[in-house]
Amino acid sequence: MLISSPIFDFLFKAAGWKLVGNIPRDLDKTVVIVCPHATWKDFPVGLGARSLLKLPILYWGKKELFDGFFGGVFSWLGGYPVDRSKNTNLVGSIVDIYNSKETFHAVLAPEGTRKDVDKLKTGFYHIAVQANVPIMMIGFDYVNKEIKIRDPFYPTGDFEVDKKVIAQYYSTIPGVQKTWIKNYLAD
């Protein structure tokens, strides 16, 4: 799996992007969430950020991305396919992966799509709670070309409380006007 590359570093910086914050090196395991998921450009920008962080952050992606020729490329870049079409106890399976590893960092986009959504998919939250790992919130600030990394968030186990913390953080990312943020802050 390719984690870091001078090519990714160069392209990230040449495109004018920069990192703001860092994932603490003493964290062995994290669930990393990225919002907004608004464009196909999120993927290459994320690869550049991961390269500069020099952390083995894997990612979950819909299984259709791993079909055909590009499937090998997505796997080589650290992808894990996810079948979202049926109830497969995916959360439990992912928790088992976290529990079986000494170190494990994986990222996903909890919006689940590039379209505007009313609420987040909550699998990331249940994974973090059940695996007893912090959530790293990363914001894609396309206005200022910054990848903003929040300090680790340790979920309480009460999503109704914690969703407000998540929405408050993402409401600070310029250019993010998402329905789910408004809904969570209004609840």
Automatic annotation (TrEMBL):
Keyword vocabulary terms for this entry: Acyltransferase, Transferase
Record pathway: Lipid metabolism
PANTHER family: 1-ACYL-SN-GLYCEROL-3-PHOSPHATE ACYLTRANSFERASE, PHOSPHOLIPID_GLYCEROL ACYLTRANSFERASE DOMAIN-CONTAINING PROTEIN
Entries under SMART domains matching the protein: PlsC (SM00563)
Protein name as annotated: 1-acyl-sn-glycerol-3-phosphate acyltransferase
Cross-referenced InterPro entries: Plipid/glycerol_acylTrfase
Keyword match Iron: no
All copies of domain Phospholipid/glycerol acyltransferase, residue ranges: 31-143
Single Gene Ontology MF annotation: acyltransferase activity
Lineage, highest ranks first: Bacteria, Pseudomonadati, Bacteroidota, Cytophagia, Cytophagales
A Pfam short name: Acyltransferase
